[in-house]
Prior knowledge:
The complex is a heterodimer.
Chain A: H1 7-14, H2 21-30, H3 32-47, H4 60-69, H5 75-84, H6 89-112, H7 120-123, H8 131-157, H9 165-187, H10 191-208, H11 216-228, H12 231-245
Helix pairs in contact in A: 1-3, 2-3, 8-9, 8-12, 9-10, 10-12
Chain B: H1 2-13, H2 17-39, H3 42-59, H4 69-94, H5 114-133, H6 136-147, H7 152-159, H8 163-188
Helix pairs in contact in B: 1-2, 2-3, 2-4, 3-4, 4-6, 5-8, 6-7, 6-8, 7-8
Amino acid sequence: MSRHYSEDDLTLYFYGEGRRRADIESHLESCAQCAALYRDIAGTLAAIGAPEGPARGDQYGLEVFQRIRHRLPEHSRFGWFAGFSRVSGFAWGAVAAALILIAFVAGQRWRSAPANVENVASRVSLEPSNTGAKRILLTSVADHLDRSERVLTDIMNTSNPGDISTEQGWAEDLVETSRLYRQDAIAAGEPSVAAVLDELERNLLEIVHSPARISNDDLEQIRRRIDAAALLFKVRVLGDELRRRNPTS
Amino acid sequence: MAAEGAAVLARARQGDEDAFRALVEQHSRSVFRLAYRMTGNEQDAEDIVQESFLRAYKQLGRFEARANFGTWIYRITANCCVDLMRSRQSRRDQSHGESLDAAEELPPAGVPGPERLAASAEIERRVQTALGELSPLERAAFTLRHYEGRSIDEISSVLGLGTSAAKHSVFRAVKKLRTALAPLRRVQS
Lengths: 249, 189
């Protein structure tokens, strides 16, 4: 064959695609010009190795789900209600009894909660340029981090792994607040604050979604994740830093 | 196993959040890997992972029950990447970044030691810059062909392009990469 192969033909050949592969192969043995072009194409492409992506652990899927869970559209909840409509009258009675019990326990716990989780962000209009509002936000976040630190410390140190319902209650209160502060921190141009709050929120969610009567293994898993993320350390350091930035708090 | 997967998928399609969580847990890592390869940026890849699963959740009702969820989420992810790169490109066009024109002197091939290591880091940096110069479709097509080992037909299906468009996206990407990396190859040879 007298004609030369194009760069496109040789690119397909490099990738093992295209027709006339046998023809190209024998042509490359006899045509120095095409062989040089092919060497150049192959050399360039061989230099482009697959990027080593950062590793993601076994729990990554769960983390992703926890991050998107609150953003899932409403129709999931319709599905949930549709399921409810199929339960029997007896089950409805059991559900009603459970709700009464939950309301009673929640009322008891609310009175004995160690800290009043107040969402300052919801009361204050926060513009990034508004330094007064930003100071309030950072002060509130510092307080929020203190409360979160107490919950995390409890989880890390609890000597009775059988029942973490109290810590779960506190964590549940903190999750929503954390989310609001995170959004406000982003709006206020504080990405590092938002990043710690995001990590905190994920770990709090894991505590909330664990069974109240938790097994030793599950508790250990939560502790390992908190440890692995150095979360307690980050929460303390960020809390201190926010106070340093805003000494009146 | 396949029947179990189909059952989970069917429950997810009915709005069962736990079933959807199982799908997210199963596919997150491969979705992240693809997103990272396409964008070359960890934070962008994280954003794409979340956006892809949210899109998938919203479209579950339209998903063919007999189809493979892995293939479907792969396609959604690839297209999320293209969308993100398009939005980034329009911003980058306003403040054009680094030029690849100037070839820097590299130590000759075979020289061991820190110079050589620096050279390979330089090659890697150049490759990343060159990939960043590709159009979103070119980069997506190239990633699928070069890193993911997808055939032209598969690329065409994933990106919703005709076979010819998919093929030419790969060709254009290879041409641009060869041009961008030519100074390095000349110095090396």
